[in-house]
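stuck on this:

***
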Amino acid sequence: MNNLFYKPEDGWLADVIPFYEDGEFRLLYLKDWRNREEYGEGTPWFLLGTKDFVHYKEYGEVLPRGGESEQDLYIYTGCILKAGDLYHIFYTGNNFHYPAQGKKQQAVMHAVSHDMLHWEKKPEDAFFAPEDRYEAHDWRDPFVFWNEEAGEYWMLLAARLKEGPANRRGCVALCASKDLTAWEVRDPFWAPYLYTTHECPDLFRMGDWWYLIYSTFSDRTVTHYRMSQSLEGPWLAPDNDALDTRAFYAAKTWSDGERRYAFGWNPTREGEHDGGTWQWGGNLVVHEIRQQPDGALTVKAPDTVDGMFSLEKDIFLRKVLGQWAFAEGSATVDAPDHFACAYGGLLPVGAIKLEARIEFDSNTRSCGFVLRTDEALEQGYMIRLEPGRSRIVVDQWPRKGDVPYAVGMERPVQLAPDKPCTLQIYLEGEVCVVYVNGEVAMSTRLYDFKIGGWGIFVSEGSAKFDIRQLEPVVE
């Protein structure tokens, strides 16, 4: 199946548990039908395969949920690893009915397989949070790896301490095992008293650095990372500690041996409109992770996704406001004390990529693109660079309420007048992902304006745009 931002046809994709083998990324994911009447309660794991993040193969349900009286009615996030010829899954067994029955809501559970398609659950291996140090009902999202230095398997967990400020007890718990069956609970791996909880912990090493990935909903609802040159810490925050915006959550990573990717989901919004409450689950979004010389991480579009857009369309810009100068694929305007904009034509119904190299002078307050707009650029979504604030934001025009940009839709980015900025905008359906300089990602979701054209703008300044509009070749 060809899909830029994948979702199952009959439901929604939530947390992804990635694995790579034999040239294929195998993505276990939590599936939510949002239709209890037809599909019943609970979430199973499904399996998705891809070699390029463009074409996907559904293998179907592989880890079925338990019944209402079983611990794993909701099979929540976990991990996969291979030891010898056997695949192991460690997952969260969650049952919302259990606390009222005096039982613990969450447990770490285990399943094994020889082919990743047929799994045998090992209910006897389940274990719970020890109540002498951890809260009883938060014990989830196990991540298991082989610790070469310690000569044992380590498991990281999203947990909460019993002591401390109520909204700061979140920690990454640590368990250890020699055989992937019996687990010893140890002192927390990282307990910074920063968040309510650290969901979906993930750990990997690049060069001299270890990276701890986790997601939160108390400080900002984003996927963060910390870095350390030792598993013992300290776990340091980089200047920009998030992989993306509010619209990219629960990311976990995996490598194909050469490149590492982050797999997250772009959430839907209640009522399918821009002011709706963000929901759990949505569409798959994949970023490639790159390490910078100082150890900081940046993200870019996967090369295979970028290569999907090979059909270049002619561009015919028309000025709307301001005195523009147009050449083939480029536009320049000087608007030192006013707003200037130009219209670029209708956007296709399917997937599209807009790419621009933007140069601006030192006094420019903002510039960028308008998506799904009318020919007068009186409405639509603004992808706005703000050099003076060193950020890029998503805005809606006309605005709804007294807000300068969409809440949670901003990313820090260094913008200098002597350094051209490159934007890549990928749009399909309601999902939009923007990359700045191949280093910063800004995902969002667009509902209220479903069709329209695109344009460019400058507000109180001068800028030059070199633009390409690309579409995928029809297969």
The chain has a mean pLDDT of 96. The longest strand covers residues 453-471. The helical segments are 36-39, 303-307.
